[in-house]
Design brief:
Blueprint lengths: L1 H16 L3 H5 L1 E5 L5 E4 L3 E3 L5 E7 L4 E6 L2 E9 L5 E6 L5 H21 L12 E6 L16 H7 L2 H9 L7 E2 L12 H10 L22
Helix pairs in contact: 4-5
Length: 221
């Protein structure tokens, strides 16, 4: 009984008390398997100077919601044990209970691997799964003047547009449009239209494969 209580206490401490998830989210990340650099601040995930989407996390439930214009998406997130990798899995069915059950199984697997001397299982980006690798602090460039695109990412990709393409290629999933177009013809304001157009040609962002910032195939037409 004591062992069970200690195990539950350690798990709870590691899951909810040990880290500040909101702070851990922020910084420069690299889309796994690409050269694209993404800068996350306290409110937005920035692909380029012009393309970003807002996000909000629930540290207790380990869930995330994000928006881009009139589009909305949601899912869950998980950090690797050493906090060097961030995995976002998209979907509408995640809750406090479901992520807890998932993470109990995941932690048990990590413990078994540790005891057996095996490495952690590699998580690969795929349908609805985004994987970010944290960049070393000396490889990230702090945001200046409201511009949060990493200069390293732009140098690697050649320009801001290609940076968005490479960063977006790690993302795939599903996004719902929550707001109806009152004009009925998909009309957008100049700022929103410009942001969406600047992201065209990308192969997905946290949430879709729309080549805007969410995923072309799943956007309502």
């Amino acid at each position: 009984m004591l062992l069970v209580a200690v195990t539950i206490g350690l798990f709870s401490w590691d899951r909810w008390l040990r880290y500040d998830d909101a702070a851990e989210f922020q910084g420069s990340w690299q889309a796994h398997g690409t050269d694209g650099v993404v800068v996350i601040d306290g409110e937005r995930i920035n692909l380029t100077d012009d393309v970003a989407y807002s996000y909000r996390i629930d540290p207790m439930a380990k869930t995330i919601s994000f928006t881009f214009g009139t589009l909305e998406g949601q899912g869950r997130y998980r950090f690797s044990l050493d906090r060097s990798q961030l995995v976002i899995t998209e979907g509408a069915g995640y809750s406090w209970i479901s992520t807890l059950v998932d993470d109990v199984g995941w932690m048990a697997d990590q413990l078994v691997r540790f005891v057996q001397g095996r490495p952690q299982a590699e998580v690969l980006p795929g349908d609805g799964v985004t994987v970010f690798d944290r960049l070393p602090s000396d490889g990230a460039v702090a945001a200046q003047g409201g511009k949060t695109l990493s200069q390293e990412g732009r140098a690697a990709d050649g320009d801001a547009g290609r940076s968005a393409v490479d960063a977006d290629s790690a993302f795939d999933g599903s996004v719902d449009e929550r707001a109806d177009d009152p004009a009925g013809d998909g009309a957008q304001g100049p700022a929103e239209t410009g942001a969406a157009n600047s992201a065209q040609g990308a192969s997905g962002i946290v949430g879709a494969s729309s080549q805007a910032a969410f995923g072309e195939a799943d956007l309502p037409v």
